[in-house]
Amino acid sequence: MPSVNGLADIVAAETELSMVDGQRGRLVYRGYEAPALAKTRRFSEVAHLLWTGRLPDPSELRELETQLTEARTLPPEIVAILDALPPEVDMMSALRTAVSAIRPRQIWPPTIEDATRIAGMMPTIVAYRHAKVTGQTPVPPRLDLSHVANYLYMLNGRAPSEAHTRALEAYLILTIDHGLNASTFAGRVAASTQSDLSAALTAALAAMKGPLHGGAPSLVMDMLDEIGSRENAAPFLRAKLERGERLMGFGHRVYKTRDPRAEALRDIVIELTQADPWFDLAAHTETIALRLLEEYKPGRELYTNVEYWAAAILRTVEIPKPIYTATFSISRVVGWSAHVLEQAANNRLIRPQSTYVGPLPA
Ligand code: SDX
What we know:
Bound molecules: s-citryldethia Coenzyme A
Strand order of the largest sheet: 1-2-3
Radius of gyration: 20 Å
Order of helices and strands: EEEHHHHHHHHHHHHHHHH
Shape: globular
Protein name: Citrate synthase
InterPro entries: Citrate_synth-like_lrg_a-sub, Citrate_synth-like_sm_a-sub, Citrate_synthase, Citrate_synthase_AS, Citrate_synthase_bac-typ, Citrate_synthase_sf
Pathway: Carbohydrate metabolism; tricarboxylic acid cycle
Organism: Alicyclobacillus cycloheptanicus
């Protein structure tokens, strides 16, 4: 079986967008500590920072938020595509299909305006599709709510509380970019051929879907639902590890200490759900999982990753489980598109080597 080294520890590009320090458990966006931004800034401000390199002044912020708001109303051809997909087509496949059909106004090089337009469309694509496949009447976007509040409004049909809006906003800021993760790398490879922004984002969405990457939060929730009680955590997790299965929400290719995003999200969840027995189960399960991972996988430095407490945030703000990964994508589309812009400015085709291990003609 030919091996794949997974490009572990290979530096494929320089970037000014985010620094992921796996040894110290630190995440920096364009010179700012990500957890600090999550506590103090709006999602649109951090999006502006990623796309332009600067936090916006009030007039720049108003302009960006106007562009995001204008994009909320989907073009009829995107609605027609979503309506044409059978209900059994999962959300990430539907989102990927819809984004693939968005024609950038400028094919090459990509523009911040097109990135903003696609980022503005994605929450409506997800909310519209979710309503259709669950037999509900789609809730049209409101133009007077922020990007994040409007997403919750379209999903639940009522304006969200400030606490829920801030909790989801913090999650979306903490997941907006993360170096050359698998989906970002996929998007950069597509962009390196001078394809177009929608194509690059389609490649990124395809990679994001997998359970080893963005597909983990809903599986974390499934795991906690199956565990169900404190006393069941240890036997359940031990049985999984005995079967050689992975515990969703733990381990990371880069972080060899606690993921700073998991820490920040856990603090937010404690604020929101302290009295909730579910939080106690999640916290207890985390403790048991970390202990058992050390027992079964000594020295692998497996810690809680962002997805474990992301699942808790998304549950708390009542995001339906089937759209956890799509919600992650609503945030990461900013990072993906910022990387596409960075790649386009560099214009270097990404094309690594492989070692042939097959037979040779006699
Ligand atoms: C994200 O890259 C990013 O930045 C991603 C992300 C982002 O923001 O974009 O941070 C988001 O994707 C977070 C990760 C979400 N995925 C999961 O939670 C799924 C569970 N985690 C694993 O599958 C795993 O930890 C990965 C895929 C995340 C990382 O795997 P690596 O770096 O390729 O490590 P590996 O598969 O080589 O594992 C090393 C060892 C193996 O054991 P041995 O073969 O040495 O005996 O550790 C074991 C693995 O079996 N291991 C686990 C485990 N993760 C690794 N064992 C049990 N449970 C786990 N979760």
